[in-house]
UniProtKB/TrEMBL annotation:
Species annotation: Mojavia pulchra JT2-VF2
A GO BP entry: lysine biosynthetic process via diaminopimelate, diaminopimelate-aminotransferase pathway
Lineage: Bacteria, Bacillati, Cyanobacteriota, Cyanophyceae, Nostocales
EC number annotated for this UniProt entry: 2.6.1.83
Function: Involved in the synthesis of meso-diaminopimelate (m-DAP or DL-DAP), required for both lysine and peptidoglycan biosynthesis. Catalyzes the direct conversion of tetrahydrodipicolinate to LL-diaminopimelate.
EC class of the enzyme, as a word: transferase
Keywords, ordered alphabetically: Aminotransferase, Pyridoxal phosphate, Transferase
Modified residues (N6-(pyridoxal phosphate)lysine): 239
Reported cofactor(s): pyridoxal 5'-phosphate
Highest taxon listed in the record's lineage: Bacteria
Gene: dapL
Protein name, per record: LL-diaminopimelate aminotransferase
Binding site for substrate: 13, 38, 127, 177, 365
């Protein structure tokens, strides 16, 4: 049997060698501190679980859901966009579609809009799905470098005219995975203008909109006047409400973008379990106080790891959002060399920055998904073996 050629196009799994090492160490009984996964370690809040207990006993949830999502869920999504971002006038029938988590919807958006000869504009470093979905769709990706000196925002001036003309989709993600960077509404305005000029569907992956600290509230791209002419935004319950396993989110914005995505989806999947959509509605009615108590857990861990690394000479500042800390490797190391050293000497597992694109070389990512105690322990292990940023 032979795999389809499209599978061979997918780049080799960058973490394969590190995974092999990790498994070797685990087999030897080494206590690994896993700072690699962007998967919340706390349970889903109880008020959401209570809705599930009831919804599962309601037999009307047991059959196929409407493809686009239940009317109640789409209306709740529209209300939440209004309440949270002040975005009004969204039509729940034509401008919203439910998703089985964002990953699925991101991938299927490429299938709806990209074909051979088309370009996609994607960030580097960035969430790997943008690249692999371009390959699945048979398109060509142009990577927009995210550089520290530009606050990890893409510089639209480096996109060649002929690439912009052939581009169908432009992807951004702020608050950003993996860099933790933020975008302003002014920057979103620039993007909207650029995408209008070249007739590109602007796709904003807003998976971390609620995971922000120090009082910061990330914006929606749909807050930009006229954004709906070109933009769609991807929202997910996964990270904010500790619901990664539930697989639910929604996409909102430009009606053509939503229609294309919904058409692919209606041929690929059959929607989100209605009981889960009921839970998502409950999640969006979480009180501000409860949401803050979920988020403050990460803020506390962030402070521990940032202070610890700063005490070891790391030139880093606390990120204002996301589950991640993006840190430079000490001078003289490649990303892969340094994460291998951390694993071998300290039993600490982190992904190398180049796993998110070539521009990630020279960095590693720390996920805030282990307890305070394990955060302290990780810093202590670095101290014990004398790993510092620089002498
Ligand atoms: C986690 C993540 C997603 C996907 O989350 P789902 O669980 O599929 O909703 C999408 N984009 C980014 C940048 C992420 O980090």
């Amino acid at each position: 049997m032979q795999f389809a050629k499209r599978l061979a196009k997918i780049p080799p799994y960058l973490f394969a060698e590190i995974d092999r090492k990790r498994n070797e160490l685990v087999a030897k009984g080494v206590d690994i501190i896993n700072l690699a996964v962007g998967d919340p370690d706390k349970p889903t809040p109880i008020h959401i679980l209570q809705v599930m207990h009831e919804a599962i006993d309601d037999v009307s949830t047991h059959n196929y859901p409407p493809y686009q999502g239940t009317k109640e869920f789409r209306e709740a999504a529209v209300k939440w966009m209004e309440r949270r971002f002040g975005v009004t006038g969204l039509n729940p029938n034509t401008e919203v579609v439910s998703s089985i988590g964002s990953k699925e919807a991101i991938h299927n958006t490429f299938l709806a809009f990209v074909e051979a000869g088309d370009y996609t504009l994607i960030p580097d470093p960035g969430y790997p799905v943008y690249r692999t979905a371009t390959l699945f769709a048979g398109g060509e990706s142009f990577t927009m470098p995210l550089k520290a000196e530009n606050q990890y925002l893409p510089d639209l001036n480096v996109i060649p005219e002929e690439v912009a003309r052939k581009a169908k989709l432009l992807w951004i993600n702020y608050p950003n995975n993996p860099t933790g960077a933020l975008a302003t509404l002014e920057f979103f305005e620039e993007l909207v203008a650029f995408c209008k000029q070249y007739n590109i569907l602007l796709c904003h992956d807003n998976a971390y909109s609620e995971m922000a600290y120090d009082g910061y509230k990330p914006p929606s791209i749909l807050q930009v006047p006229g954004a709906k002419d070109v933009a769609i935004e991807f929202h997910s319950l996964s990270k904010s409400y500790n619901m990664t396993g539930w697989r639910v989110g929604f996409v909102v914005g430009n009606a053509i973008g939503i229609k294309g995505l919904a058409q692919v989806k209606s041929n690929v999947d059959s929607g989100v379990f209605k009981a889960i959509q009921a839970c998502a509605i409950a999640a969006y009615s979480t009180s501000e106080a409860e949401l803050q108590s979920l988020i403050s857990v990460y803020q506390h861990r962030r402070d521990i790891i940032v202070k610890g690394l700063q005490s070891l000479g790391w030139p880093i500042q606390p990120p204002k959002a996301t589950l991640y800390l993006w840190a430079p490797v000490p001078p003289g190391y490649t990303s892969t060399e340094f994460v291998t050293l951390l694993l071998d000497k300290c039993g600490i597992l982190v992904p190398p920055g180049n796993g998110y694109g070539a521009m990630g070389e020279g960095f590693f990512r720390i996920a805030l998904t282990v307890s305070d105690e394990r955060m302290y322990e990780a810093i202590q292990r670095l101290k014990d073996v004398g790993i510092r940023y620089a002498e």
